[in-house]
Amino acid sequence: MSKQLPLPLAGYYEAKNQHDINGMLAPFAEDAVVKDEDQEHHGREAIRSWMEHTTRKYRVTIDVKQIEPVDDRLIVSGLVSGDFPGSPAMLRYAFTLSGSKIARLEIA
Prior knowledge:
By secondary structure, the chain is of the alpha+beta class. It contains 3 helices and 6 strands, in the order H-H-E-E-H-E-E-E-E. Strand 4 (73-81) and strand 5 form a beta hairpin.
């Protein structure tokens, strides 16, 4: 997986699969935005809170299946397993990078 993914994304997914909040947060820019379940979380403090909540609630792991550049984003498709109805499910993660940091993440 990490050979295909840019470092910020590889770090995010590695930490996500270990439920490591600090590791998940590390690749995000200070002013990053995450959009998930029709809500936006602005800035690292709000993103940390979202990560803590969703990690506690769903305990997901992600098996990255595909990465594709689309315009200025990287679209990652992954098989997500966890404590939620319909698990496992394929989800799409749209990342916008700014240098070596994640500036935006949209999960659908």
